[in-house]
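Service request form, structural biology core

Requester: graduate student, group of Dr. S.
Request type: structure prediction, single chain
Budget code: on file
Notes: please return the result as structure tokens.

Sequence provided:
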Amino acid sequence: MANYNSTEKNNLKTLGLIVRVHRVKKGYSLRDLAKLSNISHTLISNFEKGLITPHNDTLKDIFKILELKFYDDPAISVKFKKLYKKAFKYIFFHEYGEAKKIIKEIEKDKEKYENSVEVINFAIILCLYYAISNIYSEHTEKYLSQYEVVLEFFSPNQKQLYYFIRGLDFINKELFSDAREYFVKALNVGDSKLNILVKDYYVISLSKSNKFVDARINALEAIKAFEAQTNY
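Core staff response, request fulfilled:
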């Protein structure tokens, strides 16, 4: 199964990601937020990049201005990790009915996950489910555009899934050239085991673009890879 990124080593970056995403969503520049919070814009910038952890009082001031809560209970991550892995397994094997049950369970704690160290993984698993099952969700488009501004801070595996979801979204919109571009990006970063799933949809995008020779070559490669990893 695709690697799940340990949140412990990414806590600093995740905290910063939450702030940066909501700052941009509210239309604040770094200097705007600095002025409102009476905190150095350099400090805020370094915080958003995960380079430093501000004092608790400073964090409270920033979160208050952005109208945010932050859930730091480790039990939240423990629960989410189990649900994420279950949902991903069902999605990988195209068992969307079972995946839907897990996704609905995850969505019950939306506020907690969106305002915890699981914010990126939460958005990814939701977008992956809705995009791959071609079910319209207002969340998908919102998250894809919202988190694109912080893509540089994603782990390789998170980037891979983001690119894959983007490709799926373009397939659903019948923009097959754009879909191919993102599938290629997904194939060049992250967990190579996930490439089996990515190639399935890459082949579809090639076929829909009338690139039948390339589609056949990639389909054969995907079949061989799947047969070689029967325990995946």
